[in-house]
């Protein structure tokens, strides 16, 4: 590989003024002088060239056949990045008492792409043409001169944005088959006078390949602003000097590398070419120059893990430097032993301060692992150097990966992952201190699935304000249909709230703003969710790049990155539940709120609970229209459960009751709710005598009115109520009472189940997730949970806090982890529903299927001790078995 010093920047800016040039110029001079004096210490790392006198002035025709160019001082550019051809552009310089002579040799494999549009002297800045230029600044002024020449040999000159300035510069250019060359003669009188001994000038050189991608090539890297003289290279004009006319580094790899050059030394003196570390260490390699003619040279030099990231190539002799070029080692990834040592020391310090055994062990393990990996890597590089070989780029990348991750560990927030529904708290710490490579989400079509990211601020000296940035989703498998994009992934944060039983935990799952900002206090952890919505998307495997960026880089924290991997499996979950699903309190504070309705439908709710049933007056009349808004929002394929608590206190025995019930039935029918679309719930958790008499009275007035009850009771009591009850709904803890459950089954009526008291201090997310699987386990017809109503943002008081969502600042809803657990549970039910349907195609389930079905039944046992990983394991196995039974195979959701 041939190399050039290449920096990709924009065009030079337009002049910063249109008038008042004298004042602005004066201010510029002052500012540049201040900057120049402040950066003198930087000169030791700037490129340097000693330019010798020309014995005979060259002919300025663009043809580099003059004798002077064979030994003139030369700048062979070295590519850093951006130029795909890695062209060996070279600039030659010589001088006499009248002129500075500059020549450019520009290899061009695509001469047909050369742009040549500006014709004539000072026809414009030539920045839109293929061109070369020289910036030059006299030691006696902070202002610079710029001279540009294009492939037509036309010159443009300026004096620090003064485009009207001009001098007697001459130029010429010639375009050949695979290169173009140019020459300029710049009069010293126009730019500050003939150089004086021991005075240095500031110079920079540039090539612009306008027709081949707009690439810029520089001698001295000035950063994003080209017009910064204190970052130009340094030139000294001398009587004679050795010169390098060719320089090639090839691929710089760890191990023993080789530098090749063509150079010559004057007839007198001792000169050598060396390459050394940029931090001032002894020369890595040195070779003497031949005298009087151009000769090929080769130096061998090692690059180890302790090599400075930059190397200095220098041509010197007699205590003087004649050529100096700073180059990156370009080993990627680059290992910094200093950073690694800092990391290891910090891990040791944190381990000493840790109060939690698990975390202390994680820190010690990370430190031990780091020392072992560093020693292993150093041994392999040393072996390569001693054997005279190099380590290939791909091999090095894999070898260096563990050490590089350690190097980055303490300058980034520690990222880790866990089950999304697992409890999180500010004080929780990772079980392992290592680099996070991915957060994984797997699901079918038509579901919402989350992946959790934990961000721990363990090593920063202050709180961290971070921003999460997702890149464009890349589809690696699958084609056609609606592909997953960033818009299908919601960023959410588990907001930390105080609770009575568990301290401060992350329960509300609130969407992050568009800025994606997260605040992580020092020595604390925060949890972020990636919530993927796969409704109506096509199956496939996707990767989304994610970056964690510090808002303030002054904290010393560097960006971290990982992949969000999303697998959408090749089957669909039904959009509707095959059993009844509802949550109490649809109307309590949620009337007309689209957020709440969307929440319920997202969980495939198909029965809506209304507790604000209109109460009759003394004549049995009621404001039935008061519930019309609620009824209007209920989808046509859904039903309603009406709570009628006012009937408990013998209201059902009063004459007004019959009139009220007939009007209620008629009003519901007029709104599209026939008998099959609603039910009355009169007595709560009871099979009392009053309930029995009330149920008989309701059936006497209208036998088609459906009645629910939510108490298990004894088998004989169930049989007594059987003629008057249309839906049984025992508490989930009573389902193990087999005789009573069988008595309910014997009636042939639907059986649902429910739970209640779901505050963060009582039931965990896995309890809520287990509920639908409990309904599947017992082959029930419906399932419900108490309660979809608003929770207060803390439950430190002794008040009940049963709600499954939290009120948002804009009046909407913020779901809890418990509600997300319920949603996951309804998806679990659908997986089992599809699995059993697929098994019906077999003569009988296999041993694998029987074992898997039993594991799923165990998850329906409602035990908080059931770990969330068990749910994940069973879900994934069921999903892969569904695919297998459908004749599809998927070895792994996430390929290595």
Q: What is the strand and helix layout of this fold?
A:
Elements: H1 21-38, E1 48-51, E2 73-76, E3 90-95, E4 99-107, E5 131-137, E6 145-150, E7 155-159, E8 170-175, E9 179-187, H2 188-191, E10 200-209, E11 215-218, E12 233-237, E13 243-248, E14 255-264, E15 272-277, E16 283-288, E17 295-303, E18 310-317, E19 320-328, H3 337-353, H4 357-386, H5 393-409, E20 414-416, E21 438-445, E22 448-456, E23 464-470, E24 474-477, E25 489-499, E26 503-511, E27 517-520, E28 525-533, E29 540-550, E30 560-572, E31 580-583, H6 594-602, E32 607-610, H7 628-633, E33 639-643, H8 655-670, E34 678-681, H9 689-701, E35 707-709, H10 715-721, E36 727-728, H11 738-746, E37 752-755, H12 765-777, E38 782-785, E39 790-791, E40 805-807, E41 813-815, H13 817-839, H14 847-859, H15 868-885
Parallel strand pairs: 1-12, 21-30, 31-32, 31-38, 32-33, 33-34, 34-35, 35-36, 37-38, 39-40
Antiparallel strand pairs: 1-19, 2-3, 3-4, 4-9, 5-6, 5-10, 6-7, 8-9, 10-11, 10-12, 13-14, 14-17, 15-16, 15-18, 18-19, 20-22, 22-28, 23-27, 23-29, 24-29, 25-26, 25-28, 29-30, 40-41
Helix pairs in contact: 3-4, 3-5, 4-5, 10-11, 12-13, 12-14, 13-15, 14-15
């Amino acid at each position: 590989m041939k190399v050039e010093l290449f920096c990709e920047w924009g065009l030079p800016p337009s002049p910063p003024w249109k008038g008042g040039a004298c004042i602005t110029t004066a201010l510029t001079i002052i500012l540049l002088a201040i900057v120049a004096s402040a950066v003198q210490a930087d000169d030791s790392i700037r490129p340097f060239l000693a330019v010798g006198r020309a014995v005979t002035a060259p002919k300025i025709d663009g043809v580099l056949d003059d004798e002077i160019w064979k030994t003139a001082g030369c700048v062979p550019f070295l590519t850093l990045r951006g130029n795909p051809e890695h062209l060996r552009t070279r600039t030659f310089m010589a001088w006499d008492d009248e002129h500075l002579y500059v020549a450019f040799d520009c290899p061009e494999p695509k001469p047909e792409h050369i742009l040549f549009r500006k014709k004539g002297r000072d026809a414009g800045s030539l920045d839109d043409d293929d061109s070369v230029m020289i910036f030059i600044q006299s030691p006696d002024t902070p202002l610079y001169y710029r001279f540009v020449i294009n492939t037509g040999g036309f010159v443009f000159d300026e004096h620090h944005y003064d485009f009207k300035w001009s001098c007697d510069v001459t130029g010429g250019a010639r375009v050949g088959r695979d290169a173009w060359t140019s020459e300029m003669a710049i009069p010293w009188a126009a730019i500050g006078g003939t150089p004086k001994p021991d005075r240095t000038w500031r110079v920079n050189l540039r090539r612009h390949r306008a027709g081949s991608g707009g690439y810029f090539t520089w001698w001295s890297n000035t950063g994003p602003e080209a017009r910064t003289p204190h970052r130009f290279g340094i030139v000294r004009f001398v009587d004679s000097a050795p010169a390098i006319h060719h320089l090639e580094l090839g691929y710089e790899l760890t191990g023993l590398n080789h530098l090749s050059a063509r150079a010559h030394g004057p007839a007198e003196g001792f000169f050598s070419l060396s390459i050394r570390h940029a931090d001032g260490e002894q020369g890595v390699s040195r070779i003497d120059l031949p005298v009087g003619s151009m000769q090929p040279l080769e130096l061998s030099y090692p690059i180890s893990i302790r090599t400075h990231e930059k190397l200095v190539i220098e041509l010197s002799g007699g205590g003087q430097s004649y050529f100096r070029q700073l180059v990156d080692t370009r080993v990627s990834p680059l290992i910094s032993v200093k950073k690694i040592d800092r990391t290891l020391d910090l891990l040791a310090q944190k381990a000493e301060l840790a109060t939690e055994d698990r975390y202390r062990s994680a820190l010690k393990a990370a430190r031990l692992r780091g020392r072992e990996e560093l020693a292993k890597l150093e041994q392999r590089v040393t072996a390569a150097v001693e054997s005279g070989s190099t380590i290939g780029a791909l091999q090095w990348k894999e070898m260096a990966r563990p050490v590089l991750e350690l190097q980055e560990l303490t300058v980034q927030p520690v990222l880790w992952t866990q089950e999304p529904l697992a409890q999180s708290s500010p004080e929780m710490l990772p079980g392992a201190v290592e680099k996070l490579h991915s957060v994984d989400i797997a699901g079918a079509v038509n579901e919402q699935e989350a992946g959790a990211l934990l961000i721990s601020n363990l090593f920063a000296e202050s709180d961290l304000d971070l921003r999460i940035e997702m890149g464009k989703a890349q589809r690696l498998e699958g084609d056609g249909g609606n592909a997953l994009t960033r818009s299908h992934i919601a960023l959410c944060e588990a907001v930390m709230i105080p609770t009575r039983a568990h301290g401060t935990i992350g329960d509300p799952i609130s969407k992050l703003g568009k800025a994606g900002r997260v605040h992580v206090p020092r020595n604390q952890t925060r949890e972020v969710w990636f919530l993927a919505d796969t409704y109506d998307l096509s199956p496939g495997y996707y990767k989304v790049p994610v970056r964690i960026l510090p808002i303030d880089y002054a904290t010393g924290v560097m960006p971290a990155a990982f992949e969000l991997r999303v697998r959408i499996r090749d089957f669909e979950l039904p959009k509707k539940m095959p059993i009844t699903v509802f949550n109490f309190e649809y109307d309590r504070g949620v009337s007309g709120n689209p957020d709440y309705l969307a929440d319920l439908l997202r969980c495939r709710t198909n029965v809506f609970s209304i507790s604000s049933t209109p109460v009759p007056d003394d004549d049995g009349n009621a404001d039935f229209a008061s519930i019309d808004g609620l009824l209007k929002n209920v989808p046509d394929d859904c039903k309603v459960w009406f709570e009628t608590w006012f009937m408990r206190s013998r209201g059902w025995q009063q004459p007004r009751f019959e009139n009220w019930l007939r009007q209620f039935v008629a009003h519901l029918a007029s709104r599209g709710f026939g008998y099959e679309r609603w039910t009355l719930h009169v007595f709560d958790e009871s099979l009392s005598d009053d309930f029995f008499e009330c149920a008989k009275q309701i059936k006497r007035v209208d036998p088609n009115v459906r009645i629910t009850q939510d108490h298990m009771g004894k088998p004989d009591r169930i049989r007594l109520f059987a003629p008057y009850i249309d839906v049984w709904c025992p508490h989930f803890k009573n389902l193990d009472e087999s005789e009573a459950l069988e008595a309910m089954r014997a009636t042939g009526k639907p059986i649902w189940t429910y739970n209640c008291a779901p505050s963060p201090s009582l039931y965990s997310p896995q309890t809520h997730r287990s509920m639908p699987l409990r309904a599947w386990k017992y082959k029930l017809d419906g399932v419900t949970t108490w309660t979809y109503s608003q929770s207060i943002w803390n439950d430190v008081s002794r008040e009940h806090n049963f709600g499954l969502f939290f009120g948002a600042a804009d009046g909407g809803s913020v779901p809890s982890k418990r509600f997300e657990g319920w949603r996951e549970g309804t998806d679990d039910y659908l997986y089992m529903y599809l699995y059993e349907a697929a098994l019906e195609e077999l003569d009988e389930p296999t041993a694998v299927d029987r074992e898997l079905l039993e594991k799923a039944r165990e998850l329906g046992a409602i035990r908080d001790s059931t770990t969330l990983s068990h749910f994940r394991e069973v879900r994934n196995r069921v999903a892969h078995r569904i695919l297998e039974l459908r004749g599809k195979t998927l070895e792994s959701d996430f390929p290595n």
